[in-house]
Specification:
single chain, 311 residues, alpha/beta, Spore Coat Polysaccharide Biosynthesis Protein SpsA, Chain A, eight-stranded mixed sheet, 12 helices, 8 strands, 42% helix
Length: 311
């Protein structure tokens, strides 16, 4: 990566996001880093998104195509990007000051790094702070066994990561980013930057809070199956296979909130069956009232099984 100021490509996929897009564009253009290429890709919006992009045509690279979904739009951005470092910034999640420069500093200081990710603020529809999220320092096995995506808003990566992975996997509608990070973790180390440098906006129209349920749960399970089918998965990752599946079932259950309680219970029960001791110790508080109900039921079942075996 040549020079002290390598080119950074920022990609924003946008679909009908005229309500927040300008704020995001301004947050990227206001960064203090001097060498940024900003690509905003309009995924066939039918609202005022094209008009916003027209206002910034001299300061960004904007393109428009027929609607094909976020994953394919991001992959198109990877093809167009020319920077040594790439970041994907959602069209409703403004960056905070210093986000790009802090990431570049980390990459320049450590040539082995492949990904950086910061702390971030969860904000509401009006931009008010809900809470600050400080993810753990990076460990690949923890990310896999917890089924918890450590890189979040404000993550950046070297362009060769996208090239070697072939971009995001379009089979995933909801969790293509998590799949990308799990595969990227096999290419080299990540660095957690312990500063609040990005935001994630929680609002009813956000893609991450809509259309969940069976399909979302299925994607989490498909992702774990995909990772464990990889030939180069290290042995220490293979050793937590049952825990990884258990956590995927748990996350599927947690994200089925508002859906059928039977679906939630079924997914939580599968989580318990895969790794029951975890929910009696490390994950004791994970599942709330339904978890307590299932744990009590599991204890009753286990005691009954012991009585049968010792007769």
């Amino acid at each position: 990566m040549p020079g002290a100021h390598p080119l950074v490509s920022v990609i924003t996929p946008a679909y009908n996001r005229a309500d927040y897009l300008e704020e995001v564009i301004q947050s990227v253009l206001a960064q203090d880093y001097p060498n940024v290429e900003y690509l905003v890709l309009d995924d066939g919006s039918t609202d005022g998104t094209p008009a916003i992009l027209e206002r910034y045509r001299d300061r960004i690279r904007a393109s428009r195509h027929a609607n094909m979904g976020e994953t394919r739009t991001v992959n198109r951005g990877f093809e167009l990007a020319t920077g040594d470092i790439i970041g994907v910034i959602n069209s409703d999640d403004p960056l905070l000051p210093g986000a790009i420069s802090r990431s570049v500093d980390a990459f320049v200081a450590n040539p082995t790094l492949v990904v950086t990710y910061p702390d971030w603020n969860m904000i509401d529809a009006k931009g008010a702070l809900i809470r600050t999220v400080r993810p753990p320092d990076y460990d690949y096995v923890d990310m896999l066994r917890w089924h918890h995506c450590l890189p979040g808003p404000g993550a950046f990566f070297r362009r060769e990561v996208a090239e070697r992975l072939g971009g995001r996997d379009p089979q995933f509608r909801f969790i293509a980013d998590f799949d990308f990070w799990l595969r990227a973790g096999l290419l080299g180390p990540f660095a957690h930057i312990p500063e609040v440098l990005a935001t994630f906006r929680s609002h009813p129209s956000g893609a991450s809070s809509a259309s969940r349920g069976r399909r979302m749960a299925q994607e989490h399970l498909d992702l774990v199956r995909k990772i464990y089918a990889l030939p180069d998965l290290p042995e220490r990752a293979r050793a937590v296979r049952r825990e990884a599946f258990s956590s995927a079932y748990y996350v599927g259950g947690a994200q089925s909130s508002g859906r059928s309680s039977m679906l939630k219970k079924k997914l939580y029960l599968q989580a318990l069956l895969y790794q029951p001791t975890k929910y009696l110790s490390e994950y004791r508080g994970r599942m709330g009232p339904i978890g307590r109900e299932l744990r009590n039921g599991w204890r009753r079942h286990f005691r009954s099984l012991l009585r049968t075996l010792t007769r």
